[in-house]
Amino acid sequence: MAYENVCKQSLLYEGELVPCKLGDQEIVIMWPDGGKPKAYEARCPHEGVSLGRGDFNGRILYCTAHGWVFDGHSGKCLQPTGWAMKEYPMRLENGMVQVDIAGG
């Protein structure tokens, strides 16, 4: 696995979404209330619209383009069902958030 730094760990807060870039790849770090932070590709599976500007309330992420709804704990699409955000391996190391986009 090739983990790369995407942002400082101090930028992460429970209940928030942090958009990041790793090369040309846009990702989001989503930390749901009562859960653990996870890294996802920031493209909505519907039409590839960026979820980095989505509306996250600590539990649910809403795609602002077409209203798709994602569970903050799992990345699964709740409306409509049968879809999910692509998750990447993530770790916290030496005060940095590291993501492996090749391992996703």
Automatic annotation (TrEMBL):
Q: What Gene Ontology molecular-function terms does this entry list? A: 2 iron, 2 sulfur cluster binding; metal ion binding; oxidoreductase activity
Q: Which UniProt keywords apply?
A: 2Fe-2S, Iron, Iron-sulfur, Metal-binding, Oxidoreductase
Domain of life from the UniProt record = Bacteria
SUPFAM superfamilies, alphabetized: ISP domain (SSF50022)
UniProt KW Repressor keyword: no
Q: Which residues form the Rieske domain?
A: 4-99
What Gene3D superfamilies does the database record attribute to this sequence? Rieske [2Fe-2S] iron-sulphur domain
Where does this protein have coiled-coil stretches? none
Q: What is this protein called?
A: Rieske domain-containing protein
